[in-house]
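Checklist before submission:
- one chain only
- standard amino acids only
- sequence pasted in full

Submission:
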Amino acid sequence: MSLTYTAGSLVAARGREWVVLPESAPDMLVLRPLGGSEDDIAAVFPSFEEVRPAEFAPPSPADLGDQRAAGLLRTALRIGFRSGAGPFRSLASIAVEPRAYQLVPLLMALRQRTVRLLISDDVGIGKTIEAGLIAKELLAQGEATRLAVLCSPSLAEQWQGELREKFGIDAELVLASTVSRLERGLELGQSLFDKHPFTIISTDFIKSTRHREDFVRHCPDLVIVDEAHSCVAADDAAQGGASSASNQLRYELLRKVSADAERHLLLLTATPHSGKESAFRNLLGLVRPELAALDLESPAARARLAEHFVARKRADVRDYLTKEDGLADDSLAERTAFPSDRWTKDEPYKLTPAYRALLDDAIAYARDRVAEAGEQGKREARIAWWSVIALLRSMVSSPAAAAQTLKTRSESAVARTAHEADLLGASVAADSADNDRLEGMDVAPGAAESEEAGARLLELASRAAELVGPAEDAKLKALTRHLKDLIAEGYHPIVFCRYIPTATYLAEQLEGKLGKKTKVAAVTGTLSPQQRLERIEQLAAEAGEAGDPAARRVLIATDCLSEGVNLQHHFDAVVHYDLAWNPTRHDQREGRVDRYGQKRDQVRVITMYGEDNGIDGKVLEVLFKKHRQIKKDLGISVSVPDETASGVTDAVVEWLLLHGRQGSQESLFDMGDGHQESFDRIEREWSSAAEREKTSRSKYAQRAIHPEEVAREVAAVRAALGGAEEVRGFALEALRDLDALVRTAPSSGREDSGDFTAQAGGTPAGLRDALAATLGNRLVEENREIPFRTTPAIARGEAALVRTDPVIGAIASYVLDSALDVKALGPRPARRCGVVTTDAVTTRTTLLLVRYRFHLTLPSRTGERQVVAEDARLLAFEGMPSRARWLDDEAAAALLAARAVANTHEQAAHNAISRALDGLGDLAAHLTEYGTDLAAELDTSHRRVRKANEEIVRGLKVVPQEPADVLGVYVYLPPVAPAASTVSGAEA
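Returned file contents:
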């Protein structure tokens, strides 16, 4: 007859100890190795395999370690935890250490029965991390079972990588290019959204009627929507053309998704307003229908909204949990290393005489064509208008783009009506932040209005083709100079341009012109999203990112990379080669590198403009200078209303056609009464949008979670899992003890960075194998330096000094395993026993490292969930075990910093540790009482985090599993007179 084992108890089977998990049954035990991870879980059948009760063996008095043994063992143990007992079930198992401010949306989510949040933090703060934390936590708690992320197809691979690498969520891509393959693997009547529990879905693909209905019917219980502002339309959206129509389709999709009141929904956007109050209201209505109708002038209504809406700018979180946030001190203060500011400069260039003559002739052609078309009818006039804009934008971009446009038919030429011409042609002028057509937007437009370009256009195209190269292309020549300056100062720039021909042209012209150690590559819409990321990684590898520090990389990109893609790890400067016709597009470009994780304190930005081409100077004067002033006043970027941007650019083109380049020196606001009224209106609209944004930032500032609440949870998490400084100290000491060659001089060029490098060639084979699996065989086999960084912004072949980094995990696993195995060969940094003579104590003091196991009953919407979790604690007492005087937790932790001041006599050390081990039985009652108190604290913590939802905490239980495991026993003795013989393991 087999024994019955309770969840959390220890058993021995297959030559090792295991923890019994709640999923077990009498005839089948589900087991996790003691100290192991979820990946090591196994099923054992007691009828066929020997299973017996087990107890954790006490330490051996013959296996003494030095003064650092306790700290190393404790940290190694905590790093190995992947299932904490606190209210955050997932934090121990993710491969990223979230910033304290990133816990705010998570705390907000855990207070809701059904999570509905609009996360509108500023660009670069980390909305993806915040959403990933919530998703991982809901899945870990059983509150959600399936997940779908709706995003732009160009960001799908990035989302897939973030979820897999940082949160352990392996999601399937559902794109136009993958759906056929996925559907072939379905059974009859099966939906791919049922077969694949975690999916990343192209919003553009799924919005169509055919796919939308299938998705809505089988929609997961947790949905994340990226760039949610593009999924709503303002109430006057009908006048917005194709882009608004597409927004309307997405809006209809999300209305159906959000209609299920039981579905968790996270909406992410850095621009919830975009200057349109009705669109903002519609966005709120997706979160909760009643939010759309709130009177946001009312404090009570704003408090209601604050439960579901978080919007912070960098200044709000750069220094967090400080006394300025209302805390008593700065002990938990967290300073996030955003780049301090952008160094920006506008750099003009002047056309060469040949290029100037070509542009003048092109303007003359455009003037004649518009005048001629105006006499033919409204349809012809609109076709001509869009063709002219395409011609002028390409002409000022590059000779390559100009030649391509002059030989290509205009997209609007096939229009049957003036309205259709506007729908087809508007993309040539659209640089809107809300534009949903980034894919394909970098194709050079056409200017010809028939299949065969007229002789006049072909002649202009021929002349444009002759102007390639720095001799006649002053813009290219100026770019080369700016890039050389940036490279000389150690920067890795991205050059953004509007059209594919321009990007290809620049890459060809710059190759070999920027120095032998500079690599140049182009990324455009001709590549798939995955190929774009691969091209960037290839460029980083070729530029010797982990090798030659003198190597530089230059990326030429179109706006297919301007939104959503994270480039801060590889690049730190931006050059706007082509001036966008909406400043928000520049913000998006710069936001790819100026974000959390950027190693540079200052990102450089150069905006190039033609001061004599008749277009750039005026766009810069009106749109960009106003945009910068608003940003300076508010501290945030305010999206330019689409009507404002298009109104300005239309006026610029009209003026150019009327007066030519000769009028280019005249201010746009001095154009006469005909335009003054228009520009006054534009000024009013933009100022009004800025004022609304300023008001909303103050009205809707995050107040649902007070910093003091965040501080309390951060302190609890750090107490259970450790912080960054502990991890750095552990890695340094462990690697040195394991015979790695460690250099602490900062290699990143920053003073006191805390970075160091290690060569693992001399370490034990077991550790080398584990490091090779993470870093690659070549790096370890060739004994190269492995950089350890204090920042999460790491490159290939580097390790981040955070507990969840795989390299840190491999070191911790080796240290823990070697400490538990007294027969292990080679160096063993941590030991389970130690005796230290130190002036940190005045009487005999004993420190215990104790592992507690808890059986948690966690209520959820889907029923109760049974979980076994672990926690490691330090307990200390003075005197003998039979008469122990227990110290508080702070005093116990302080003993880890105690340093030996004298050698300990060998016999004295043996006697001291033997008495401590023999007296463990006398301590059992206190260890049990401590475990009971700790269980009560954990219960309180769970209830506190979910305090706004009584239904979620009803039935919550935290029960300690007895007995606790005593992993380490360390005795601290006050100084005594030196003795003749010492024990080597206890030396100072």
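Reviewer check: The longest strand covers residues 957-973.
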